[in-house]
Amino acid sequence: MHKKIYKQAIAPLEITIETFFNQVYKDLDFHRALLTKEDFHSSNFYNVNFRNAFLEGVNMSNCQFIDSSLICALANNANFSNCIFNNTMFNSATLLYTDFRDSKLSNCSFKNTNLQGANMLCKKIENVNFEGAEYDETTLWPTNFYPEEVGAIKKEYTYPIISINEAYKNCLEAIQIAKKHFEVK
User: Fold this and answer.
1) What is the structure's pLDDT at 177?
2) End-to-end distance of the chain based on CA atoms, in angstroms?
3) What is the pLDDT of residue 28?
4) Mean pLDDT by 10 residues, the chain (185 residues)
5) pLDDT at 150
6) Which of 29, 31, 39, 89 has its CA 20 to 30 A from that of 4?
């Protein structure tokens, strides 16, 4: 069975699967993919690009992300609970009220990401960059984890509104950082 994944202003991606969940995805480009409220639970993602993807309300619980990118992704109210993230980039993503409960984060970057209202009660946060990431009093963090000590910025609780130009500038910066991060040395 063929599933079509529609992308904003780009030709759709066709993959041969019956369901999105419990799959292995490798070297795929979901750039600008429209995946709102899709169910990918229990899947593995290896070198998968979700840059600028629309992931609002998506269920990616119990997944594994290795060498993947969610730069500038819009993933409000997404479920990333009980996941393993290794060498994964979330730079400049919007993750309002997103659930990372019981996940393990290693060698990841959340630079300039919006984490307001997110559940960051992770089992492990190791070598993770939160420089410029915004959170508020509704964001949940593990006991004895101090987000401001790793570069996060506490904001007053408001629903964030940024201009299109500011969002575009943040995404361009995130892309440059990712290119440097994933360069072959």
Assistant:
1) 72
2) 39
3) 93
4) 64 79 94 93 98 96 98 97 98 97 98 97 97 96 96 80 63 71 56
5) 94
6) 89
- Secondary structure of 17-61 as H, E, C letters: CCCCCCCEEECCECCCEECCCCECCCCEEECCECCCCECCCCECC
Other CB atoms within a 10 A radius of the CB of residue 38 amount to: 19
Buried residues in 129-150 as b, exposed as e (16+ CB within 10 A): bbebbbbbeebbbeeeeebeee
* Residue recorded with tokens 């130009």: 165
How far is residue 11 from each of residues 36, 71, 118, 180, measured CA to CA in Å? 17, 20, 32, 27
What pLDDT does residue 183 have? 61
CA distances from 68 to 43, 90, 93, 137, 162 (A): 13, 9, 13, 29, 26
- HEC-encoded secondary structure of 83-143: CEEECCECCCCECCCCECCCCEEECCECCCCECCCCECCCCEEECCECCCCEECCCCECCC
The reply to whether the predicted model has a pTM over 0.85 is: no
At residue 175, the pLDDT reads: 73
